[in-house]
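A reminder before we start the practical. When you read a complex entry, don't treat the lines as separate problems. The point of joint prediction is that each chain is placed relative to the others, so the output describes one connected object in space. Small molecules and nucleic acid strands, if listed, are placed in the same frame. In the example below there are two entries. Take a minute to note the order of the lines before looking further.
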Amino acid sequence: MSFFTITAGALNGLLLGGLYAVTALGFSMIFGVMGLMNVVHGELLVLGAYLCFFISRALGIDPFVATLIVAAILFAVGYLLQSFVFSPVMERGVEPALLTAFGLSIIAQSLFLFYWTTNTRSINTGYSPVGLKILGIYLPVMYLISFGLALVLVAGVHLFMTKTYLGKATRAATQDPDTAQVMGVNVRRVYAFTYALAAAIAALGGTLIGMTFSFVPSSGLTWLLKGFVIVVLGGMGSIVGTLAGALLLGVVEGVGGAIMGTGYHDLIGLVIILLVLVARPTGLLGSAK
Amino acid sequence: MKVGKAPLWWGFIVLLALALIAVPHVLDRYTVFLLYLLFLNIALAQSWNLLAGYAGLISLGVAALFGIGAYAAGMTIVHLGFHFLLGALFGGVLAAVFAAIVALPIFRFRGIYFAIATLVLSEALRIFMVNWKFTGSAEGLNLPLESGTTLMWYYYVMLLVAAGATLLVVVILRTKLGMGLRALGNNEASAQNMGVNTFRTKLYVFLLAAFITGLVGGIHASKMGSIEPYSIFSAMWTLSTANTVIIGGIGTVLGPVLGAVFVIILGELLADYQTFHLAITGALLILIIRFIPAGIWGQIGKLTLARRPEGGGTDAP
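Here is the predicted structure of the whole assembly.
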């Protein structure tokens, strides 16, 4: 282990952080807007990966083009889930909604298993396994693409939230659902839209996971936990904070993996999160509300 | 009527106990094994219910404590030649020690943060165990066959643990700790104002639940004969336990028992449709939360009106 390996680990981690941001963004939005700990988020990502895998193959199109179709499908799925499954139990508090999401996650996993078996899959294109060598450091091209997409996506969601009516309505519903309702915001619809948007972003997250790594029906949990770590690091529900948290997690994992060995790569983030939470239960960048 | 009720209960319990002691001599091995699983479910469900149903602590970390118990038992049985009961007891103790260590940081979380923190802890532990060479990393451990321990042995041991866990809940609810617990489950802030030491109350039930869960894990490790981190630290343990309690009736003493019976029977009915078993279980969980949040036993209590479900947290899981 040398200075070089650590630098390489940190740089790779930073870029990988972009991918993490895309996968965690929807989770963070749902939590931030409606306080729902959406533990089925991992399965939404995996569903996105599977759909992209099959659609891009069947139509012979680039995975990123297929993602547009998948995003539309997941948008609809998300809208329906929030309207008919979550909305009725959310009035009773956060725990029933959490356990409902838990139930959905099990249903999704066993259906994936039934239809798509335990086979490890990945979305392959001509460019997905390619890497660039910059200053002697090997950087997978997918990391660079993910990083660029993450920046665009975060900026887009941020603009949407601050500039459009729907975005403003969403922020109003976030701050105070009751008052927003009185002021004429349809809070239920805002929630459904938020969930739908988050699911659509998960479609892109799934595509990136499938192209960069591989996935099986049970892959969701790993990504859910990463999302949780990111949301805690970046402050609960903040969009820009999600990007910051994701990049931070990427760097820490990259450096930690370079020092301790790759077997412990996934463990590092989880340990950090526990330590951070002990010191600051509202997250690293979050303000104490 | 009230005068005659208590002896009736006692009569029922004595009969049930006699029947449960007698059945392994009569029934076939498979049924005895199913009953063993039933007791295992009851014991885990009772300890989870103590946390979620009464203290308002939704733990998604059952697998962590179960796994610690299983591995502690496995390691002491393999390397130190412990008898399996001693190993399982050690498993329970180690799970409780682990719970005591993590209690301080983890009790800072409220509600869903607590739930996710326990899930993170449990997953972190699983990844660690997959990598830890000392415990055989991903391959795990092979336990020696105990001479003279048959399925019937495990049946009786697990019966004792399940009955003990149920009795423990009944006893706790009648003590000062139980009163503090109910106050805590209803509203932590007002419990604190009323003079309940909420941290200590939570700590005690957390340690008790951890001990039972670890003990069950230790016994099961010995019963299985081999353990590896993926299945032992699987989130399935957490899921099936939470499921059992919610279906049966959260925050009630008999809910976990009824839930376990229901889950085991459902598992048998769906034995030919293994792939859909989990999906149906998940759907059932969602439907119960939505339409009968009090669970089966809680709903019976509501319908008969005469018997109010014990404890506070019956309205929402």
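Discuss with your neighbour: The beta strands of chain A are 131-134, 137-140. What might explain this?
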